[in-house]
Inverse folding.
């Protein structure tokens, strides 16, 4: 009986050291600013608003550590003028949830070293009725001579 227990313990120990042969696919690391902003854009979930609400624009200042965590506290630097306090709170919550979904950012070694501690300004534009530019297109007008 002791012999069986010893064999079972040896097999269990070997299993723990070797582990199962299941390979887990890892996400590719973030190697550029373009990839970082694309990943943040993918984490953004616009908040639900009542019909007719124009939405708003919000900007946040954030810095990352080498290993992709947020350094310090993100700071809101701009919010659309005229937005109510409730709308501001909804959008602030949406931005913080976006950062929580994306952090830690899987930077490759060189990228993490390059951006560590540097502040980034992230602009979230969720205006539902984008203003049209008042640009005159002189090159499209025809002139008769």
């Amino acid at each position: 009986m002791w012999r069986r227990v010893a064999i079972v313990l040896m097999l269990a120990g070997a299993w723990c050291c070797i582990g199962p042969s299941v390979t887990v696919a890892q996400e590719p690391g973030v190697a550029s600013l373009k990839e970082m902003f694309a990943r943040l854009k993918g984490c953004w979930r616009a908040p639900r608003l009542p019909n007719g609400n124009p939405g708003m624009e919000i900007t946040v200042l954030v810095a990352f550590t080498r290993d992709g965590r947020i350094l310090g506290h993100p700071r809101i630097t701009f919010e659309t003028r005229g937005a109510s306090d409730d709308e501001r709170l909804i959008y602030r919550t949406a931005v913080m949830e976006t950062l929580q979904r994306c952090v830690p950012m899987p930077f490759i070694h060189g990228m993490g070293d390059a951006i560590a501690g540097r502040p980034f300004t992230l602009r979230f534009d969720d205006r539902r009725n984008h203003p049209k530019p008042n640009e005159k297109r002189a090159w499209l007008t025809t002139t008769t001579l």
